[in-house]
Specification:
Length: about 210
């Protein structure tokens, strides 16, 4: 097990070229784990990929010295256990209803509640809140904020840079969430400036 684990999370909008670029960027930066939302469905196969039931969220191991345990896939999220924490990759479509968003969080809650280790929950939640950098809070942002407080979770995002950029507009919909008791161990969090071939930016952090 490496002492510091380097992670990139990103929604690649299903793009094959975006996946190629992500893998090349990860290799250059010596990244250990990728957390991918809206991956290229036909390509997330093989023993180094973990994928949810809908192929909307994935985890890829790039460092062979890291071991994944107790892998579990749900609808819209996939999780695995490492030595000191549980890692999730999540995706929530912007097109689902508020009721379905609440149902998604209920399913995620059941998984998180079963864990005996701190959790790091990364993904595209398509929720806006001033708490993580948005100019306004939408209904899904309100629901997610209440959910975070109810389960002793915190958002790592600094809110300084948008995680989604389209033209001249940006938003903060890609989140790094964690148990409060592991928040201080997540370091070097930042939105990267590198090209992604996606509207979403790479998020980098170390644990």
């Amino acid at each position: 097990m490496t002492s510091v684990i380097k992670v990139i999370q990103c929604n690649i909008d299903r793009g094959s070229a975006a996946l190629d670029l992500l893998l090349a960027t990860a290799m250059s930066a010596q990244i250990d784990i990728l957390l991918v939302q809206e991956p290229t469905r036909s390509r997330v196969t093989g023993p180094t990929w973990l994928i949810d039931k809908q192929k909307d969220a994935a985890i890829k191991k790039l460092n062979s010295n890291i071991n994944f345990h107790n892998i579990w896939a749900g609808d819209g999220f996939v999780m695995t256990e490492l030595v000191n924490f549980i890692l999730y990759s999540c995706y929530v479509s912007p097109n689902i209803s508020v009721d379905n968003f609440i149902e998604y969080l209920q399913h995620l809650t059941m998984s998180v509640a079963e864990q005996r280790k701190p959790c790091i929950i990364c993904g595209d939640f398509n929720s806006k809140s001033v708490m993580w950098g948005a100019l306004r809070t939408d209904r899904r942002g309100e629901i997610l904020t209440e959910w975070l407080a109810a389960h002793d979770l915190t958002v790592v995002n600094t809110g300084n840079s948008p995680t989604f950029v389209r033209g001249n507009s940006g938003s903060h919909i890609d989140l790094t969430i964690c148990s409060e008791n592991i928040a201080r161990k997540i370091t070097s969090w930042r939105v990267m400036e590198e090209e992604t071939l996606s509207y979403h930016r790479y998020i980098y952090f170390e644990i």
